[in-house]
Amino acid sequence: MAGRPLAYCMLFFVVPFYTLRPNIRRRSAEYRRRRFGDRGALGQFVDCFKLHMEFGKMLVDRAVMGILGQFSLDASPEDFQTLVDLAAQGRGLILITGHVGCWQLGMSVLNKIDGPKAIVMYNNRKDVDKHYYEHDDGNEHPGFSIIDPRSAMGGTLEMMTVLKQAGLLCIMGDRSFGSTKNVVDVDFMGGTIPLPISAYKLASNLNVPIVVTFSHRTGAGYGRIWISRVIDVPENMGRNAQIYQPYAQCFAKGLEEFTEHHPWQFYNFYNMWEKEE
């Protein structure tokens, strides 16, 4: 089928258009500076082009997955068995990931685990790109429900319901969506960024294990998902946000490790360190 290769070719026309726009380049400038250093105007442009190209390929793969169901996600037998064993404990399971690699396509692995599943996802109305499940009008949310963090109480009641049913809850651990409540500062790539701690509070309140997991795109229509670390948060730690800082820091360390191995697949297109300026 020529669809995917043709779409990749079109990126060589689309990506330069966006990369040439200074306001677009600024969105990833701080990340690129911290990850690659000051490489001069040409080097910075090339770095930005590579980042946008990888993001474009991920969007193409996402569309193909939604329309044709064609995407192959690999995981080690050990990691998959860890997920199965933790889910089998019947306490529920929280998966924390970030806006990196093929994170949405990586969530398709949830279909292989029994029980109710939900993803905490903020849908920005200004986003023009579709999530992979939105490309198929007949199967809008395949295998999982969507919890909006902007809903009442930040969707906490819905999250608790899934976990109390021994289900799987997937949460993005790298964005607070503008809320300063339930956020702590952590060290990340030589600076300080705010990260949400709602997942760790839920884990403590409900005695639920946390799996930090990431995925990356390995080729046309292929990706790999793995477990970065498993976090056990002690029960009943209370409401003080700072108590949960070490667990958010643990996630941040995993995220930084991801950028070391897959620097072109980091898709937080904003200055995460902005308050330092």
From TrEMBL:
Q: What is the recorded name of this protein?
A: Lipid A biosynthesis acyltransferase
Provide the protein's localization.
Cell inner membrane
Tell me the PANTHER family matching this sequence.
LIPID A BIOSYNTHESIS LAUROYL ACYLTRANSFERASE (PTHR30606), PHOSPHATIDYLINOSITOL MANNOSIDE ACYLTRANSFERASE (PTHR30606:SF10)
Which keywords describe this protein according to UniProt? Acyltransferase, Cell inner membrane, Cell membrane, Membrane, Transferase
> What species does this protein belong to?
Pseudodesulfovibrio sediminis
Signal peptide extent:
none
Subcellular location, principal: membrane
Read off the CDD domains from this record.
LPLAT_LABLAT-like
Q: Which domain of life is it from?
A: Bacteria
Keyword check for Cell inner membrane, yes or no.
yes
